[in-house]
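The material for today's practical consists of a large collection of protein records. There is nothing in a record beyond a sequence line and a structure line. Backbone structure tokens are a discrete shorthand for how the chain folds in space. Nothing more is needed to start thinking about how sequence determines fold. As an example, a complete record with its sequence and its structure tokens follows.
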Amino acid sequence: MRQQQTAVSANMHFSWLIMLLMSSVTFVGILSELMPSGVLPQMMADLNISEVQGGNLVGYYAIASAVFAIPLVSLTMQFNRKILLLVLLVGFAVSNIAAALLLNYTVIIFLRIIGGICAGVMWPMIAAYGMRLVHEDYHGKAIAVIMAGNTLGISLGMPLMTFIGNEFGWRAGFIALGVVILAIALISLFVLPPTPGEKLTQSSSPFALLKIPAVLIVLLLTLLGVGAHYGVYVYITSLVNEIELTGGTESALLLFGAGSLVSVLLAIKYTDVYLRLLTIAMFALLIISMAIFLLFGRITGIAHFAFFLWGLSFGPLVTLFQAAISKQVESAKDVATSVQSSAFNLSIMLATSGAGLLLGAYSPIALTYMAIALAVPGMLISFFARKTLG
């Protein structure tokens, strides 16, 4: 009874402590996924593996996350949200720490798949969990704060973890991340309120959700938006080298991160009220930034500003689409966000493959054409989707 009262009282207000704690979960979640990227040369040398095998350390993680998201979220819907999150955090920690202590590449790949499975459940459930703890008027704000950890992980966490890996070895970086995750789990044990799960019914199944036109519109926007962004972002180093940006990749990522942080703050404040306008602006800023790369990419200062604009567009990407999908259903938001999360990961894989083919045939600047070609219909659909986006 006391636990139920705690959960109910949490619904009465917006708790920054709880939301920031949940944001720390998405922070370590994205670091757990991308960690090998920052220390890949050291891992390749230490494990005696090829570049392709090194890439699989991230690729298999993403595939596991995409494949297992919908079935496992559906399977765990009846579990208490707090207990489920604690189990997932322990899974993240063990997969990272154990990988750091082992020498066998095959076993490490298996551990990365375990981490990917945990991520497949965590990403959709954490947003739905947060929404249950606040009034419906603050659902967008809750998602924005929680998913801000994702942006901070990319813009601030990855450089920090890469520094630790370069200074003390990749194994130290993995262990440090695992210890931080265990600390977050311990704090969550005492701070997060428990909330019961939901029953999965025929009307709330993934297949039933895919029959809702508004859900399909959000999934289409996810494919277009994520594809446009990640098709270029994955090969950002190639783009920087192509336009000969002063300051190199470090300068580009710094400006990109600064823009992302600004837009995350805006998303926290305005997502609940201006979801549709923010989505239109996200696509529009992406188009403008890519056009600047095409027309003025070699001009110092202007090109740097384009990376800042691109970061403005990129920052609220996860927030906007998860907020949009959650608006389309009254219950089973975990399932709805799992469908959107799977579409998100699928989009990344498709964008990476498509961009790779373009790079094989053309110069890196061709990626900006691909981004624009995807973003223009995304902006138009967002403009006319008044009923879906509000």
